[in-house]
Amino acid sequence: MSKSRKAAEGPEVADLERYDRQMRFAPLGQAGQRRLLAGRVTLIGCGALGSVMANTLVRAGVGHLRIVDRDCIELSNLQRQVLFSEDDIAGGLPKAEAARRYLQRVNTAVTIEAVIDEVSPGNIEALAEDADLLLDGTDNFATRYLINDLAVKTRRPWVFGAVAGARGLVMPVLPGETPCLRCVFEQGLPPELNVTADTDGILAPAVQTVAAHQAMEAIKILAGCLDAVDRRLWQLDLWTGRRVPINVAGARDGSCPCCGQGRFEYLQGRPEPPATRRVGHLTVQVFPREPVRIGFAALARRLEGNQEIEVRYNPYMFRARLENLQITLFPDGRAIVRGTDDPAAAQAACERLIRA
How far apart are alpha carbons 287 and 333 in whole angstroms? Predict the structure, then answer.
């Protein structure tokens, strides 16, 4: 398109040019694209599923994306988490910030907000503020039930997704219209599906397929095409090629403690997290005993000359190696300790680091 033609059509039409091929898809069209541009999404988790969804939605022109993730990037992430590189690891960037930097270069017209934090009952309402849609990029059912509680309470749609090995699950939740997550999985996954990437590994094509399915449902919802939303639970196995759509409409019968009885047990949990929590293989998250702000420069000065502790830091995190443990410390005092499954050992290492 020539510059003169863009000027004649005005900036609003010209700004839509990057979405030309997308708008040519008749069920979406220009009207749907404009709704996407006005859409606001909170994505909780920016690992495997989250990074693929964020990439897809920013390129699709979703107007505002808030990316919430507690973690930093490790070498083992690069096999399937599409927004990150070895440079991000060398720079010590948290996932949310690395994703924001990459995606902002992809589409400067989208507002992208990075939040480096653990989602909890005490902050999820603020993190979801003004969002039209919530997206599940998490790896645990406790957080998913928390998302589900908030979505049902506020009648805000969300899209559930899970993947491990070569298998995955996808289901959109439209509060008041479809079953919620607890209708279908009241106590988490059944044993035959309860696998994790730590125990069963994970293949990138399975991640991309599940995330693409989630992103497609998100686009339909944000574009106002609710009749097109696939309200079934999809069970996928990319290794065998088996794809099973399950009609779960009958699961919504009023007996659900969340959407049937209005008991938001996860949302009403303690605002403060427990002192420690396992968050992966040989990985423990440690929370401060009381609110604190840690000055990384001052901590680094205190540790100068300590031959037992190797440190490096940036504005986002402070990383230290203490014997066989790697400690990643965030400004609010939260820490992720890799190299142990023992919460007591993780907490002791953090206290030793801060008091050194």
Answer: 7
